[in-house]
Write a structure and sequence with these properties.
The chain contains eight helices and ten strands. By secondary structure, it is of the alpha/beta class. The protein has two domains: 1-141, Rossmann fold; 143-211, no CATH class. The protein starts with a strand and ends with a strand.
């Protein structure tokens, strides 16, 4: 029986849910939907997912509250992409510190969504046989990106840092046991530093592990 990548979309907005489904319809992915934080907690408690796409603003437990409860109950956290407006940068940073792998800033384009998903699935801790209509290029044949490096450290639950070399300097993301501890770039910190690094051409992205 052919294995599939299994994705959980946690979203109460029907239009955004349809955008995700339409973008992912070209791929052989098993998609579940939870429309609030409590339903999402029940699903991740009883099923294994390769990836969770998580809105921050939800009824019956926000995205942050969901991640806190997953941590409190010691539930295996899927590779997680959170998304919200840039104005919620503090909340996004808190999600990264709670174990989310990456984030997307609204409005989300299909290309950005696919790029983030491909980077995160490539390093999912639950690697399976690749469905026939997902080419290896979609998953693996790309240079190391910042998003992929972030997913690698969170998925492996490792301690270390990511060094991002740009023409304007070097940014540093520090991780402790797979959770983002700090991000710095030229006097900037947190999500602002990460988002600035994302906009700049990279000379290199390097993962350095401790221990």
């Amino acid at each position: 029986m052919e294995s599939e990548f299994r994705i959980l979309i946690v979203e109460d907005n029907f239009a955004d849910e349809q955008l995700f489904k339409a973008t992912l319809s070209q791929l052989s992915l098993s998609i579940d939907v939870a429309r609030d934080g409590k339903e999402a907690l029940q699903k991740v408690s009883t099923a294994m997912y390769d990836l969770m796409i998580l809105d921050l603003i939800l009824p019956n437990a926000s995205g942050i509250e969901l991640l806190k409860e997953i941590n409190r109950k010691n539930i295996a956290l899927p590779t997680t992409i959170v998304y919200s407006a840039l104005s919620a940068e503090n909340q996004v940073m808190e999600c990264l510190k709670l174990g989310a792998s990456s984030y997307l800033i609204k409005p989300i384009t299909p290309l950005n969504l696919l790029n983030s998903i491909s980077d995160c699935l490539a390093v999912s801790t639950k690697r399976k046989s690749i469905p026939e209509n997902i080419s290896p290029t979609f998953l693996d044949n790309k240079p190391l990106t910042l998003t992929k490096a972030m997913a690698e450290l969170t998925s492996a639950r490792r301690t270390g840092q990511i060094l991002v070399e740009t023409h304007d300097g070097v940014g540093v993301l520090e991780y402790a046991s797979g959770k983002l501890a700090a991000a710095r770039f030229k006097g900037l910190s947190g999500v602002v530093a990460i988002e600035t690094l994302r906009t700049l051409p990279h000379r290199s992205v390097t993962v350095q592990l401790v221990g």
